[in-house]
Amino acid sequence: MAAPVRIAQLSCGPEYSGVQNEINEAAKSVGAEIFFPDVTLADIRRDFAELGLDVASPDLRLAIARAKALVEGRIEADAVFITTCFRCAEAAIVRNELRRYIHENSRLPVVSYSFTERTTAGTLLTRMEALTTIARRRALLARERQEGLTLGIDSGSSTTKAVVMQENHVLGSGWLPTVEVVGSAEEAVREALRQSGVAMGGIEAIGTTGYGRFLVGKHFDADLIQEELTVNSKGAVYLAEHQHGAATVIDIGGMDNKAISVHDGIPGTFTMGGICAGASGRFLEMTAKRLGVDIRELGPLALKGESKRVPMNSYCIVFGTQSLVNALAAGSSPADVAAAACHSVAEQVFEQQLQEVDIKEPVIMVGGTSLIEGLVHAMGQLLNVDILVPPRSQFIGAVGSALLASGFIGGK
Amino acid sequence: MAKIFIYPTTSLILSDMVERFGHEALGSALGIRERLQTGGFDSPPLQITPDEPKKGLRWAAVEVPSGVRGRMAILGPLIEQAEAAIIIEDADLAFGCMGCARTNELLKYIVRHRGIPVLDLMYPRSESEGEKFVAAIRDFLKSLPGGR
């Protein structure tokens, strides 16, 4: 049995919030263990003063000393998890600065999270799994070329995608709404195989990712079952033909959003979820429905409108829809409403999530929502960069899975 | 004998002094060690569950971080029992230390609003200050009912 991946925890408050066990459980379920870096009182006095972040809470000073011990190599770890109470401003500053400090001064993958007493192991699972994957599968994640004949399946919360790849080319793909998890995957795979002109028996390796990855992976006896943070990062830089150096990947999904700082195709720091449905792809689906247009028409429609003419910035999908209905009732044009909806989603992702990763160009937008031009345009305006949307951007998870699965051909 | 709430609650030295002068110390009976291998300075020896932050709603509203409310669920009842309190400001980490500054602010506020006798002292930084510090604590404890 492989040695557990050692995740160093830098934190303030999880024990008194009653969630330390949930953190431990999440790590344990992905073959990792949480540990608290061992530092002395003398280390804390010195390191806290050296970093120059003058915080009052002793546990945050302890976190600073632990971060310095990790960066300076006095304590070894495979990954870092920084976590503090939700709604604590002092802790938020420390959490952000330590994440940046560790990311800039070490190769340790790091993720930060603010918890409440309602945080469960399930909420933390994908983040812990990603930290473990980065630590354990660095060689696999370094793969830049797809080989053989492989199948990748991305079982997402809104849609299921499948691609068949052969010798670094996509032969065929399937994309449909997720209804019944396994049934939708079967249908997407059937379509991908049909377009490819190959039979299931010819597939040499299978990879799965997304919310339904375990169920679908078991059903198809997949060689690789991997969370979407590392897989999507790989798929994004592969399709964008930017596998070397820094990049930022933004994936606004149906249920949660991901923002990932990538280096050489491997996530260094990332954030996932964290906003209400008003900042998700689901809100854009609802907007399209209310405007009576197909979701594919929403992007071009938004480009014709002016977002500033319609006030809309709600985290909540219900209040967001209310703003939308009010605007239409007040005579706003569908184009302006579409533009405002795109701007609202982009602005909230920008404010809530992109502050937690370092934005480095190219900024690559992926996932189904990257096909909504109005959303890409709004994000580009907010970040003041040209956003890169790679070809087949909606298939990054499936392509990443097919690419990484080729590392398993012939039991490699 | 009086029940004395001590701050920092983790100070074994303060707890010991209170007991020596015939009173009961209300604190968390945790020593701060030179090496820290636990999650925080005052990591709880008891199992805290997500119910504690909910119990803490008695002292702090829901918008207050869960870590503050969880601590209040443990320390709030101690303050309610207290007949007097000793508050040491700016203490050295080794003297006793509580991890969350926001909880500390709230704790001290609640203590001061109980209307019980409170001794406020700065942590001593020299030997002569140390002597005055011990004498002040001794005099305060002796002045309380049951003090010896």
List the SSEs and their pairings.
The complex is a heterodimer of chains A (412) and B (148).
Chain A: E1 5-12, H1 20-29, E2 32-35, E3 39-40, H2 41-51, H3 58-71, E4 79-85, H4 89-105, E5 110-115, H5 121-136, H6 138-141, E6 149-155, E7 159-166, E8 169-177, H7 181-196, E9 205-209, H8 213-219, E10 224-225, H9 228-239, E11 246-252, E12 257-263, E13 266-272, H10 281-291, H11 295-304, H12 317-329, H13 334-352, E14 363-366, H14 373-383, E15 387-388, H15 396-405
Parallel strand pairs in A: 1-2, 1-4, 4-5, 5-13, 6-9, 9-10, 11-14, 14-15
Antiparallel strand pairs in A: 6-7, 7-8, 11-12, 12-13
Chain B: E1 3-7, H1 12-20, E2 24-26, E3 35-36, H2 51-55, H3 66-81, E4 84-89, H4 101-112, E5 118-122, H5 127-143
Parallel strand pairs in B: 1-2, 1-4, 4-5
Question: Which descriptors would you attach to this protein?
Answer:
heterodimer, A: 412 residues, alpha/beta, Nucleotidyltransferase, domain 5, five-stranded mixed sheet, 15 helices, 21% strand, B: 148 residues, Rossmann fold, 5 helices
pLDDT averaged residue by residue of chain A: 92
- Spatial sequence of strands, sheet with the most strands of chain B: 2-1-4-5
Shape of chain A: globular
Provide the gyration radius of chain B in Å.
15 Å
| Overall CATH class of the domain at 3-35 and 78-143 in chain B | Alpha Beta
Report the order of strands and helices of chain B. Answer: EHEEHHEHEH
Q: Please name the CATH topology of the largest domain in chain A.
A: Nucleotidyltransferase, domain 5
| Second rung of CATH, namely the architecture of the largest domain in chain A | 2-Layer Sandwich
Helix content of chain B: 25-40%
Residue share in helix of chain A: 40-55%
> Strand arrangement, largest sheet of chain A?
2-1-4-5-13-12-11-14-15
CATH class of the largest domain in chain A: Alpha Beta
CATH topology of the domain at 3-35 and 78-143 in chain B: Rossmann fold
Give the helix/strand class of chain B. alpha/beta
